[in-house]
Every structure is written in structure tokens, then in C-alpha cells.
Amino acid sequence: MILFLLKLFAGVLIGWMSQKFYPQGNDYWGLNDAGWKEYHLLMADPKKFFTEIFVSPYQNGYDGFFNSIGSYWNDLKNTLIGKLLAFCNILSRGNYYINSIFFNFAGFLGHMALYRVFADIYKGKKWPVIIGCFLLPSTLYFSAGIHKDLIVFSMLGLYCYALYFSLKNKLTAGYLITALLSFVVLLFIRNFVAMAIIPATMAYIIAARKKWNRYIVFAAVYSIGFIMLLLLQIVKPSVQPLEVITQKQRDFFDLPIASSQLNTHVLEPNIQGFVRNAPQAIDHALLRPYVWEPITTFLVPLSIELFIYELLFILMLFWYRKNQLETPFILFGLMICLPMLLLTGYIVPNIGSIVRYRSLYLPFLITPILCSINWGNFQRKKHIKI
Length: 386
Prior knowledge:
Structural class: mainly alpha
Strand content: under 5%
Shape: globular
Radius of gyration: 22 Å
Number of strands: 0
Order of helices and strands: HHHHHHHHHHHHHHHHHH
Distance between the termini: 38 Å
Largest sheet: none
């Protein structure tokens, strides 16, 4: 109950802070306003309310699945959230904070789903698992707003829950429906996450079912996938996956310059360009903001949080508990998170957005670190000093 109330408090906090510091306009309150308009449409013309979901206002129709602007699919993300808010507004009458409570019921399911998985993997590690799944500050904060991030985090948690326990126990209708529904929602809300899930799921299923070496299985699946993409480009030159990513970066460059803007190299749509920009992408995605460079006051606690995670990683290297990373699920989580973080480092040119995107994947990184540190070393050293 305390953890759930903390989640609700985070939802209120992000709503209050976004309105206080960005009263001229922000995504959270903007989506809530859009939901109020959708509510009036629902009351006045229910037929249009439902049918307009499937209508594209663009000349290119339903093309541009991965486009960031001028695309039916890009608009669909906010459209679906607005439609969902319309039903919440029947009770809330457009009040942001009441709608936040409704949304965070779903948001809390994401935390609970991940907790169930990691608690089963790390039996006897109650508090490290609770901290990693519920109490990481940036994850708790950014996954609590009325926004796509809350939905992505929840669906990702539910997908992992269904996949993990369907492989451990047996595939049931409940697990299958949960996995399919959460995947489809991710596909519509943030399609790059859904794309990252596909090869990771294939490798995880093979490694778990066949009991083969998980590192070899994951390496083989990703190598085959990479070769297939290269062959696809040769057979059908119009398919250019790297061009999709570089276009994403250009779309970010076209946005107004943020107060936490980073000097980001322009990507070229070829392997050499991505290799050349990789060090900067890794730096932006995993190491920024540095504790000595907070550009805004808001980034100070976030830079301290990241520094603590870096210290925890170093501790794990020195005081690693053997056999704590044996399950292929940990590798599955890493192979979703690390590509998404690297993609973020490539295309997003400001620290504020990077921190928000990164927060959704931290439980997959920090929970295994917390559970893999041999905390008994500290206890033994304490006894020795005494």
C-alpha cells in the first residue's frame, strides 16, 4: 500500500512541477486538455469519436510508420491516450490529478509485474528487488505522468511478466493475451521498443527452452538478424533502416533548442557513420548528466542519482555474488534496454529528454546490479573492525 501511495504521489508531483515550471505548455497537461476535448466529442458524436481513430488526415495515407512528424502512426499515440482520457473524464470532469490516479493504477501494474519477475529470480533478495523495481527516483517520477512513458513502462513490465512465467510454468491463455496485448500497445505507442523486443524474445525463448548457452544463442540471433537486414537492403534498396534512425535525429534537431541541449554529431545513414558516432551516443545515453555539469537545477538530483548507479556498478565488479546473473531473462532485459539507450544517445540532442527516456529501462539494469552485489562483504568488514 505504501508503494502504491508513493506512485500516486509521484503522479501528483510530476503534474504539479510541470505546470509550475512550464505553465506556457507541456506534454502532460497538453494531453490532459486533449482528453477533455475528446470527452466532449464522445458526448456529442460517439460515432465520430470511435471512427476517427482509423482515419488518416495525411496525403500519404498510412505510410511513415516510423516517422516522427506528419504521420498517422505518430499521431495515433496521442490520439489513443486522448480517447482513453475521455472515459476517465466521465468521472474526473477533466481534473488532471484525478486522471493521474486512474493512469497510475496502470502504471503501478508495471512496477508490480517487474517485481514479480525479479523476486522470482532473486529469491531472498527482497529489499534490493523492491528498491530496483519501485524506488528508483527517475523511474518512479517519469513513469507517473499522463504521458506515453507511463504506458510504455507498464506494457513493458506486463510483457516481461507474461513471457517469463509462461516459459517457467506453461503458456496459458492469460499469459498469451497479456503478452500480445502489451506488445501491440507498445507497437502503437513506441514502435522502436516493440522492434527491440522481437529479437530479444526469440533469443530468450530459444535459450530458455533448449537450455543452450545463452550468450551464444543471443549472439547468433542478433548476428542472423543483422545479416538479414543487410541482405534486405541489397534485395530491396528502398528499405533503409539506418535512414529511419537518421531521420529521427533530424526531427529532433528541428525542435526548439532546449535549455539542456547537447552538442550532437549529425548521423550519416551508413555503418561508418554509426560506428563513428557510437562513443558520443554511449556517453550521452549512459553517462550524462555528469555531476559537475548540471545545466539546470532540475538536473542536479538526476546527475547525483546517475552517479550513485555508476558507483553501484563498480561495487558489483569488486563484490560480485557468483551465479546471480545466470538466468537468460537478465540478458533478455539488457538486450532490450541497451539498444534502446544507444538509440536514444544517437538521436536525442538534449539531456532532459535522454533522462526521461532512460528512466524507463533502469529497473532492468539496476535491479540485477543491486542483487548481484555481495553485501555480506560489508558486514564482514564491519565485524572485523569491531
